[in-house]
Amino acid sequence: MTDYEFVGEKLRQKIKGLFEIIPKQKHVFIDEVRCNGCENCYIFCPGGCFTMEDGIAKATHIEDFCQECGTCAKICPTNAITYKEPEGGTGIIRRFS
Amino acid sequence: MQTYDIVIVGAGPAGSAAAKIAAEQGMKVVFLERGNSPGEKNASGSAIEMHAAREIIPDFPHEDTPLQRAVEGGSFWLQSEEGLLCLNAFIQAWSTEKNDVKAYTVYRNEFDKWWAEKAVEAGAKLITKTLISDIIKENGKVIGVQTEKGEKFFGNVLIGADGTNSKVAIRSGFRGPWKPNEVALCVKYDYPLPKTTIDRFWGGFSENSCKLDLYFGQSMAPAGYLWIFPNKESISIATGTGLQEMLNGGENLNYYIHQFLQHTILGRILKNVKPRYYISHEIPYLLTYPTKPLEVCRDNVLIVGDAAGSVCNFDGEGWDSAVIGGKKAAEIAIDAISDGDTSKQSFQPYQKWYNSYVLSNLDWGWRIGHWLFNEAGYEQLANPLLKTFATIFDHPHIDHIVPSLNKNLSQLLPLLGTLMLLGKLHLKPYADLLGSLV
């Protein structure tokens, strides 16, 4: 039973301001034709980067919340998600890791 | 176009170790890092082991090494329906003398930067803010890498030390991306706390020392564990679990951290304390039985560390095997280059090292992990002891306590058999290894 308190927008509110990101271009993409609406990316993304719209996942907060783990692409059952690392010198900076 | 003896992708523990060892032997080495500085993209528990650090820097640690606390022991918390059982382990050898310290907690951002500087001081060239886009092949063999900005780096040997999502490993054909049953996701919060509070709850015997807390239980991590690593003036609370187990009815990892803070004393210690940092990271965590070693060398290319999946699939520890693997890869690459033969065949000593060191770790890790997670070993261990304690509290009279001890503790006997069997099986890879040496 998914606890939606720790997913998507609600998760983003909890972790907002707790990391640094150098502005970057979008680097995670969803093939909307392949997406079957399973919600895996939406539920498990540790950055809360995904939003469900009309039963289709949208990568709405990659630029400002992506933690660069690559989990989204691995847990997508239809391989609809492409994960790339962001351009060198951009993206997440980890200070107390 | 730039030509080197050895091109290394990644300036993490393995990449920097390989770069230092190779540069010390007079090799022309470059190592490429996608962050602004080494360590910026890295994350772990995070502790480092002395035995591995000293393979690279014999007089480790130096005065200026950014360390947090010396690890003197650990507490293992086992959750069952009866409650939480805590086993405290303070190991004598882990305390008192500086030379006896087995591990230190660190901030990887600070530590990895220092670690890479040692390679630069040895003469390796570090290039930051550089992400590779692909490997370059000629006649089917790897001869270098290309960056996203179109720069090309050619080398006799390429070492892929570029982490879990390694482009070198995937593009060179070693493996596809890891599958959900081959990786774990971890999330971690850093909470600032006064030094005195940390000393009180997690302090060891000497100044700036600590014990680690490891929590095993379904409500903390379905397949993996939750941990607390103390630093000088902060603690890390983290949890990690295999992706496949997370998919099989698990929750977003933040849920487990929240539950933990709600239901344990940590919630009280951290009342009114705001976390100052949030980190999440994915590591290889091969939860299928390792029947066959991963291929880690091909013509002109070797993979090390997380790229090569060299992480124990029980405790998730990969720093030591990454560092030692980086050293082995560099040494074998140097030999191959001086012999003028950088074929897969010439790299076989590295594959052999991997099979013995990493695979035996995986074999052991799988057995313990399988027993703990799939057969809920932590419950089997915790239940009889917790039931005994419960009896003592309920009926503090010897007439009740003795039969209870008899009844409950006798349940531990078959368990001891299981543990001994695990121990015996654990010896098998070493027996095989000895057999192959004779």
Explain briefly what this protein structure is:
The complex is a heterodimer of chains A (97) and B (438). Chain A is α+β, with helices and mostly antiparallel strands.
Describe the fold and architecture.
The complex is a heterodimer of chains A (97) and B (438). With 97 residues, chain A is of the alpha+beta class. Chain A has helices at residues 8-15, 40-44, 62-65, 71-75, and strands at residues 20-22, 28-30, 51-53, 56-58, 81-83, 91-93. The longest helix of chain A has 8 residues, at 8-15. Chain A starts with 7 loop residues before the first helix and ends with a strand. Chain B has 438 residues and is an alpha/beta fold. In chain B, 39% of the residues lie in helices and 25% in strands. In chain B, the strands form 2 sheets. In chain B, strands 3, 4, 5, 6, 11, 12, 13, 14 and 15 form a 9-stranded mixed β-sheet that branches. In chain B, strands 1, 2, 7, 8, 9, 10, 16 and 17 form an 8-stranded mixed β-sheet that branches. The longest helix of chain B has 27 residues, at 348-374. The model of chain B is unreliable at 427-431 (pLDDT under 50). At the A-B interface, helix 1, helix 2, helix 4 and strand 6 of A face strand 11, helix 6, helix 7 and strand 15 of B.
Keywords:
heterodimer, A: alpha+beta, 4 helices, B: 438 residues, alpha/beta, FAD/NAD(P)-binding domain, D-Amino Acid Oxidase, Chain A, domain 2, 3 domains, nine-stranded mixed sheet, eight-stranded mixed sheet, 17 strands
